[in-house]
Amino acid sequence: MAIFVGVTGFEIQLPRFGGGPERAPSPGVRAAAASPLLKVGAGAPPGGELAFLAVEPSGNLFVSDSKRHTVMRFDPSGHLLSEFGPTFGDATLAEPAGVAVAGDNFYVLDRGTPRIFRLDATGRLQATLSLETLGTYGLNGLATDLAGNLYAADTGRNRILVLSPTGQVIREVGRGGTDLGGLTQPWMVAFAPDATMFVADWENSRIEAWNTRFEATNAWSTGFHPAGVAVDQVGRIFVPDTERRRIEVYSAQGAALGEMGLPGSTPIDVAPKQVALARSARLALYVLGGDGVVRLDLENTAPPPQGGADVDLVSIGVLGLLVAVMIFAVLSRRGRRPALAGAALDRPVRLQAENGAQRQHQQTRADQDLLIANQPEREQ
Asked: Which residues, 6 or more positions from 198, have their beta carbon under 8 angstroms from its beta carbon?
């Protein structure tokens, strides 16, 4: 019966390991076109090195410059709108790193101080959130969730700092390690529409997923050191591969959905360090390198074959049962053969057994025995 079920393809609708209903396959994605938006010295002020970027709700870009110690705003076509810093009244931006936008608030993570600057759209300083008492080491990426909380990647301490919009520490996420829940030099954080947090775990060469209870739920290898991560509105994860000048795209479970920058496809004219997605119906991915920003216009493709996310315990159980039955049958047959052979040797041999006795006309008579015994004497 089990073999019949397997051959016919009949499927029993039972829950699968992994929880919840099966997810529909995520669509694939590719770059239909690439447009260089700006270059350092051509669109952006010369002498700089671009570090991080965020996309405003309006579609403008918010970019930090680690060498010139400033932050800049560009429109979606790459024209410079404004530049702020390095001084904001009595405060000086020492080494800007991650940037984030939440509503009308613009946040800049200063790894040199360390602290977070909160600015308005005109570049006016609203507040500074000190991180000095937290013993940070090598701050990098910055992100916000739907509630406006801030997530700072404390790379050297192998953790993500979670702060309220006013700077109070809510919690620390992660610990040093390579197992699930461990981090080794995390660089960037991004959030999916369902509030799942994805972390670019740089030294571990992987992306790690965390649920809303700050429990690590999944991790998969990228095969390279990821410094950035971004998630679109359907939950696809975009990860830049700086050395190979490519962008890898994954489903929320880590299945490959696309690869941009391959030979023969649309080239990416920067070594991508960070990525950010436009919050609009138009599928557009902004790719930041140290010397410029490129916009990739995206289009969906057919969902590629995906697997490895869920484990069908019922199928595994049926297969295991089949194997066990086969092994039991073989062992039982081998055990019966010697017993049958021994039983056959112990039984009396009859010429033709019917109801346990020979036929009467076939039984040997006493005079026949004497005749056979005396036959040689008569022949003499």
From this structure: 189, 190, 191, 192, 207, 208, 209, 210, 229, 231, 237
Structure tokens at 70: 């400033």
Q: Tell me the two tokens of residue 264.
A: 């023969």
Structure tokens at 39: 């270059």
User: Higher confidence at residue 291 or residue 11?
Assistant: 291
CA dihedral 59, 162, 254, 182 (to 10 degrees): 150
Q: Whole-angstrom Cα distance, residue 2 to residue 359?
A: 51
**DSSP annotation of 279:** S
Kindly report the pTM of this predicted structure.
0.76
Give the span between the Cα atoms of 327 and 211, in whole angstroms: 43
Across all residues in the chain, what is the average pLDDT?
84
Tell me the two tokens of residue 271: 């070594």
Helix (H, G, I), strand (E, B) or coil at 92: strand
Strands (E) across 103-167 are located at: 105-110, 115-119, 125-130, 139-144, 150-154, 159-163
Domain 29-301, architecture per CATH: 6 Propeller (2.120)
β-pairing verdict for 50-55 and 186-191: unpaired
> How do the domains of the chain map onto residue ranges?
29-301, 314-347
Residue carrying structure tokens 């360090």: 273
Within the chain, where are the H helices? 2-8, 313-346, 366-379
Q: How do residues 350-369 score in pLDDT, each as one tens digit?
A: 444 444 444 444 444 444 44
Interval 124-169: pLDDT, tens: 999 999 999 999 999 999 999 999 999 999 999 999 999 999 999 9
Strands 237-241 and 50-55: unpaired
Determine which helix (DSSP H) or strand (DSSP E) holds 64, and give its type and residue range.
Answer: strand 61-65
**What count of other Cβ atoms lies within 10 Å of the Cβ of residue 133?**
7
- Is residue 174 within 8 Å of 199, Cβ to Cβ? yes
Beta bridge partners of 242: none
